[in-house]
Specification:
The complex is a heterodimer.
Chain A: E1 7-12, H1 19-31, E2 36-39, H2 50-59, E3 63-64, H3 68-77, H4 83-88, H5 93-101, H6 104-111, E4 117-121, E5 124-128, H7 146-153, E6 160-163, E7 170-174, E8 177-181, E9 195-204, E10 207-215, H8 220-229, H9 236-241
Parallel strand pairs in A: 1-2, 2-3, 5-6, 6-8
Antiparallel strand pairs in A: 1-9, 4-5, 7-8, 9-10
Chain B: E1 7-11, H1 18-27, E2 31-32, E3 36-46, H2 51-54, E4 58-63, E5 68-74, E6 77-82, H3 101-107, E7 113-128, E8 134-145, E9 158-167, H4 170-183, H5 193-201, H6 222-246, H7 250-269, H8 271-274, H9 276-312, H10 317-342, H11 345-359, H12 374-395, H13 402-423, H14 437-472, H15 481-509, H16 512-537
Helix pairs in contact in B: 6-7, 6-11, 7-9, 7-13, 9-10, 9-11, 12-13, 12-16, 13-14, 14-15
The chains are: A alpha/beta, B alpha+beta.
């Protein structure tokens, strides 16, 4: 970043093993001259490309935290003998498939990710979580009230709170905190099948300008790979029309 | 799946070399070793029906320096042998010296023809994948030309990346292919360099299956399916015109004639869907070209049959040679007429009209039969054709005239073509089972028997005609008339034998079980289509 210029950070979340979408997201970040890319969890699970996604994030040195699905995948890997049986159970099948598909190097990279990130960008204090500060299965929706947000954040009041998990992107200023939900890169559920990410511009003195960006990606290769690789868990229409109830 | 057999092809945009690919791949964990560079010219060869390619082999004459060599690439690797043939050839017999034994065995008794000529600059390397996998990678930049044309000037326009899994799990190949497709933006290629070159030059590839965009599907309406069927046959006609014009192999003419016949049958079957007036006009033109090609082909078939029979009748060898000479004399004018027709503006216009029909958009608001899905329409069309066959077939007895048997043969052909037009649509998507396969097989046997009977009847008349002509021109000695009689007797015996076989073959075809299966076809497929629709829309 040149001296005196605003720092641009792209936050993305819920890739869900969708490699073409991640490629387009990173291209979008590059096009907007992002200085850093940070992923707010749910890297694998449900999609057909867990290995490729992890390798690309590692290759691009993207900072990432774990989501609830990543945690579930890593949890399943602790009992590898039961993985094949888990594939037959609907509730565990997507995570079990991802666990089986991941190689050793990818597992190690994923296991080394933290649960949350606290960082200072410029003069702003940024808190990156997957669901909410309460946990990675809790969600922050656009309709959240100031009272509810204070209950979730507690005494810590960052300038910017970044989350994902709900797959519904938004940016709002609530109770003095800029809240950004990055939506989902690989499996949007807000009726727009395009992937979503958040571009935040840190202009100095703790001030942050945020906007949600949408990008199109080729859906048919994902569906073809879902079929050919036998990945389970998401209806094909979810990718085409951008609606499903995926958040766990 | 053997690791070596997992192969993928990708188009390479201009300006991309192996070195520029290696850098992004290294960052993703794929490490390339030193690359080997080669530069050569190669001429690919293939039989008329693409026997080598069907088994995954490519035979070529490759010239790296001054010395050309045979080169065979296939699932079991690559091999080379010295080239000892005359450099300029129109076709080669597979027993030609130096042709690798595998290619010789695959080609059988068919001639090998030059397909396409390539100048190639190739880079080869092997890649170590991040998950205990190894790939061989080949980047080819090439320029292509038809075997009869000169090399084009300018840049080498085609680029191809070939990836082969050498060691490791097929999943590793999928990961690598996904990386190349989505991260490096390389689109999947149609096939190897030979196929890419043929596509780019607009040349037909022998023996290739129906391209995906012309495959008939159950759920599409008849107006779309009819255009696809016409498109398939037009493609087959196009693939055989050059071979028939140059008289490279009798099979070119045979395939051209069969495609013409199928087109006529398709236009009759889909007349209500495509438009009766348009179909009638096209069928009249196809009749014209079918008649001319039939005249040459019938002489070829007769000559082949005669040679076979003369070998069995030692005393008739001389007369068979005389007849073959006479046939050759007749073939000349018939072939000249065919060549003139195939090179005429009338034929070019016919092909254009057929292609316009095949590529025309289906009507927006399909009416009547046009809007019925194939799943419902095809069984009805097949049943209609079957009813005609059964009506005539049941009326035929051991003493029926040959004309009735010929009529039955024509009806059988129409029924068989109707089944074949739709057979791919009825394939089971999971097991690949073809519910019409047994039915078509039973029909083919009966039809072949009828064909041999008809050939024998025609041959008798033709031998008599030839004999009369030869006697009038005093080129036949009177003592040879007995040999002619022996040949006619052979035809009569063949005709009698085929008539006797017919009853048995008919009983295999006209069975309640076969009819039931055909009746069930519509119901089952409609149910499957409905089940398929509901599973597509059901939430997971």
């Amino acid at each position: 970043m040149a001296k005196g210029m605003a720092m641009r950070v792209v936050f993305l979340s819920d890739i869900h093993a969708n490699f073409p979408a991640l490629c387009r997201a990173l291209e979008c970040a590059q096009r907007h001259r992002a200085d850093r890319v940070i992923c707010a969890g749910d890297i694998v699970g449900h999609g057909p490309h867990p290995t490729e996604v992890v390798r690309l994030l590692a290759e691009q040195k993207v900072e990432a935290i774990l989501g609830n699905v990543d945690r579930k995948v890593l949890g399943l890997l602790e009992a590898p003998k039961k993985l094949r049986k888990r594939l037959e159970k609907k509730a565990h099948a997507p995570a079990a498939w991802a666990a089986l598909a991941l190689g050793d190097a990818e597992r190690a990279w994923l296991a080394a990710r933290p649960r949350e990130l606290r960082l200072g960008v410029g003069e702003a204090d940024v808190w990156v979580v997957h669901g909410s500060p309460l946990g990675d299965t809790d969600s922050i929706f656009p309709s959240i009230t100031a009272q509810a947000l204070i209950a979730k954040v507690g005494r810590l009041r960052p300038q910017l709170l970044v989350c994902g998990h709900s797959h519904i992107p938004f940016t709002r200023r609530i109770a003095g905190v800029r809240v950004v939900n990055c939506g989902s890169v690989g499996l949007p559920v807000d009726g727009d099948p395009r992937g979503a990410l958040a571009l935040c511009e840190f202009v100095g003195q703790g001030r942050v300008a945020c906007r949600i960006l949408r990008f199109a990606y080729p859906v048919e290769p994902v569906l073809a790979d879902l079929r050919s690789r036998g990945a389970t868990g998401v209806a094909a229409d979810a990718y085409r029309i951008g609606t499903t109830t995926i958040a766990e | 799946m053997e690791p070596g057999s997992v192969v993928g092809w990708f188009h390479l945009p201009p300006g991309i070399a192996l070195t520029s690919l290696a850098r992004p791949l290294r960052r993703a964990g794929y490490l390339a070793d030193r690359c080997a560079i080669s530069r050569y010219e190669c001429l690919f060869l293939e039989t008329q029906d693409g026997r080598l390619a069907k088994e995954g082999y490519r035979l070529s004459v490759r010239r790296t320096g001054h010395q050309p060599a045979w080169h065979l690439a296939g699932p079991d690797g690559e091999s080379a042998a010295p080239f000892e043939t005359q450099p300029a050839f129109r076709s080669l017999a597979p027993d030609e010296a130096g042709i690798p034994a595998t290619a010789r065995a695959l080609a059988g008794n068919r001639l090998l023809f030059p397909l396409v000529h390539l100048r190639v600059f190739a880079q080869d390397a092997s890649l170590q994948g991040p998950s205990a996998s190894r790939f061989s990678v080949r980047v080819e930049r090439f320029v292509a030309t038809p075997p009869w044309a000169r090399w084009p000037k300018g840049a080498w326009p085609h680029g191809l990346l070939t990836v082969r899994l050498l060691e490791g799990d097929p999943d590793a190949f999928l990961h690598f292919a996904t990386y190349l497709r989505d991260r490096l933006g390389l689109s999947a290629g149609a096939g190897d360099a030979c196929r890419v070159a043929l596509h780019a030059l607009g040349l037909p590839e022998p023996g290739v299956p129906v391209p995906p965009h012309l495959r008939v599907h159950l759920e599409e309406v008849l107006a779309v399916a009819a255009r696809k069927v016409v498109g398939q046959q037009v493609l087959k006609m196009r693939a055989n015109i050059r071979g028939a014009l140059e008289d490279l192999d009798p099979e070119y003419l045979h395939d051209l004639r069969v495609a013409t016949r199928r087109l006529r049958s398709a236009l009759r079957l889909f007349a209500d869907v495509v438009g009766p007036r348009r179909c009638d006009a096209l069928r009249a033109e196809l009749n014209w070209i079918g008649g001319l090609s039939g005249a040459v082909r019938d002489l070829d078939v007769f000559r082949l049959n005669l040679q076979g029979q003369a070998q069995r009748l030692a005393e008739a060898g001389a007369i068979a040679g005389l007849l073959a000479e006479e046939l050759g004399r007749q073939r000349g004018p018939a072939r000249d007429a065919l060549v003139a027709a195939l090179s005429s503006r009338r034929f070019a216009s016919l092909m254009r009209r057929l292609e316009a029909l095949a590529t025309s958009p289906p009507p927006r608001g399909p009416r009547g039969a046009q809007g019925i899905p194939v799943a419902a329409a095809a069984p009805a069309l097949i049943r209609k054709a079957q009813k005609r066959v059964l009506r005539l077939g049941r009326a035929i007895g051991p003493d029926s005239p040959a004309a009735d048997l010929h009529r039955l043969r024509i009806l059988f052909k129409r029924l068989r073509y109707a089944c074949e037009f739709f057979s791919e649509a009825f394939l089971d998507p999971v097991s690949g089972a073809d519910p019409l396969a047994d039915y078509i097989r039973a029909m083919t046997r009966f039809q072949d028997c009828l064909g041999e009977h008809q050939d024998a009847v025609t041959a008798m008349a033709r031998i008599q005609g030839l004999a009369t002509e030869a006697v009038q021109r005093s080129v036949l000695a009177p003592e040879r008339l007995l040999d002619l009689g022996a040949l006619i007797q052979v035809q009569r015996e063949i005709a009698r034998d085929r008539r006797e076989r017919l009853a048995k073959l008919w009983s295999r075809f006209d069975r309640r079980a076969v009819r039931k299966r055909l009746e069930a076809l519509g119901g089952e497929t409609r149910q499957n289509a409905r089940a398929g629709d509901s599973s597509e829309t059901a939430p997971a």
